[in-house]
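Q: Here's a chain of 221 amino acids. Please give me its 3D structure as C-alpha cells.
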Amino acid sequence: MAKTARTTNGESRTKKEAIAKPSRLEKWLPWIFIVCASVSLFASFMLTVEKIQLLQHPNMQFICDLNPVINCGSVMESSQSHIFGFMNPIVGLVGFPVIITIAVGMLAGAKYKRWFWLGMLAGLSLGMVFAYWLFYQSLYSIGALCPYCLSVDVTLTTLWWYLALYLFGKGYLRLSAQWQKVGTFARKHHLDILVFWFVLMFALILYRFWYYFGPHWFHLN
C-alpha cells in the first residue's frame, strides 16, 4: 500500500511538473517584448527629437531623408503625423515602455491574469490598426516612406503576433473548433506566416514605388 501511495504521489508530481513547465514561446516571449518594444521606442524617440528640431529649424532635413521616396520629412510634415492633435511618436514614447515593464516583470516571475493579457492584446490591436492606417497613408496619400515608422510596423506586428499565439496556447482565447485548428496551424508555422506578411508588405512598397526604384535598381530609361 505504501509503495502504491509513493508511486501515485510520484506520478502526481510528474504530471504537475509537466503542466507547470513553460512552453518554448513562454520562455522567449518577454525577450520578444523587450527587443521589439526597445526598437520601437528608439524609433519613436528619434522621430520626436527630429520633429522638434524641424520646428526649430524649418529648413533642416531628417537623417532618414534619403531620396524622394524614403523621406521621413515628407511623412512628419503631413497632416497624418499628428492625427490626435500631437505628434504620433508620443504614443510610442508612452506605450512601449509599458511593454518593456511587463516583460521585465515576466522575467522576474510575475504572473498576469487572463483579463490583463486580453487587455494588452486589445491595446496592441488598436496600435496595429493605427500603424497600418499610417502605412496605407504613406503608400497612397503621402507618397513617401519613413524608415522609423516602418520599423515600428515590423516590431508592432511581431509583438501582436506572438502575444496572440501565446494567449491561444494558454487557452485564454476562447475560439470555436474550426478556429482552434487555425490557431494550431499558426503556432506550427508562426515564423513562415510572419515572414510571408513582411514579404507582402515589401511587395506592396515595391509595386507602389516601382516608378522610382525600378529605374534606379535596373538602370532603366
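Q: Can you summarize the key feature?
A: The first helix runs from residue 2 to 20.
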